[in-house]
Fold:
Amino acid sequence: MKMMFELILLTLARRLRRSCAKDGMKEKLRVPARSVQIRTRDGSVARHFVFCGGAVLSRRGTITSPDVTLVWQDAATATRVLLSSAPDAVPAALADQFLTITGDGEVAIWFSELVRLCRGGSTTDAAARPAIAVIGLGRMGSGIAAQLLRAGYPVTVHNRSADKARALLDAGATFAATPADAARHAVIAITSLANDDAVRAVVEGSQGLLGGLAPGAIHIGTSTISPEATGRLVELHAGHGSDYLAVPVLGRPDAAAAGELIGLVAGKASVFAASREVLAAFTRQLQYLGPDHAIAAAAKLAANYTAVTVIDLMGQIYAFGEKTGIPLAMLHSMFRMLWAQPVMQGYATRIWQRQFDDVGFDLRGGLKDVTLMVNAASAHGVHWDFAETIQRKMTAGIAMGLGGRDWSSVCDVTRAQAGLAIAPDHPSGSGPWPPSREARLAPPSPVTCSAQWCQKWPEDRKIGRGARGTRIVATNPARHLAVPDRPRARARPEGMSAAPSGNRISAGGPKKRQKGETWFTAAGFRSPEEWRNLCWNWLELM
Structure:
């Protein structure tokens, strides 16, 4: 097996050298000098690659301090994985720790894309390629359709606003007036839509996708939708005689335009196999998650939850840096070291330089996804408190006028809460830009609040209305806190009830509410932690 692994690496080196003149490869090779080495754990097989000035150099053996090292468990494992036809073979090897990667993560991703390009495209004859329908030409759908056209597929497109199809029509696409017309002659129909309601509107009805899709055809859903909506689509297609494949995608619109999306695939293995070549035209990696379609929807929500929490975390740290005097350039370098993934590097730069007008995914769409996350987690008894916090922040951000900006602008809510201006600061630190409407609407300095327990929570946790409460004291030199008579609906978690007690008597407290104070009484809470969280949530919303 050692000889076979060496032969695979030698073949890869030759392919890389022969592919240098390809347009896509030339673009990728316009980078500073980079070095990559691949070896087995025991060092019995090793080869290094050096990329410099558009050329590819490769020899057996290792070099000192490469940018990236790919270490395989052994030659037999490496050979089996690299010769596998499964699209998720290498990711699975990483997950099983048969392969480990050390060094610069950005260079590792760049090298994997280079290998994919040098291996060439599809082997299917262009004349035999199936007809494709793409429905939904937003930022993602238009990129997917463009990549399919470049790969030589006959593509019919539909969008509610026909003007968005103009560039695709110039590139060779055909426009259809309805989703049914778009799907009528398609072997595979792809939807890229905003939310559950948009998907239902496109799929159902006499002019919907199912009205034109032939039995046995395949519908690939790339939208971020709820697991429940995914289940509904599976039922509709089963009754129609067609197949549904859930393929929510990871990546921004620029990744869609470059064919660099990551697809999370769930559905019948046979349907995935029949669709794999079409999917490969607009993705760089496919991860098959099994036959349960809802898992792909849940996985996309989990991935977006990871992204959005890190985005908000970086915004909090940048705000802390401004308040404490930490150089923002130092924090930016730290983020680039900690999160080598290019997309997260991009968000670190966006938040640092406050570039929210180049919209990849707007704040309203982000709120929709975060709401899906919260609902999906709650359905399984999981408490995603960070997602609930971001949900409130995104709602506040939309109220502040940020709804049409990139979803990373949610960090401006943190800035406003910290008393920082939310107009974009110049990255050099030379001062703020002219005040924007959002800056003029920034709230005054936050109220300082404290909470005190009025009575110790009893061991038996029996809660009677009015028997126990929490005293919420708010102080501000400039103003007193205005306390509404009842909390807003979103301040009350489902299955619980709480209301300011007004002048009602609470155990251990005064008989009359003081100015700038509010009292809460509890009913229906299972633990003091739930009660305490509700109180602090109420404070945040006030």
User: Anything to note?
Assistant: The CA atoms of residues 170 and 455 lie 72 Å apart. The two ends are 67 Å apart (CA to CA). The chain has 21 helices and 18 strands. Confidence is low (pLDDT under 50) at residues 122-126, 424-526, 534-542.
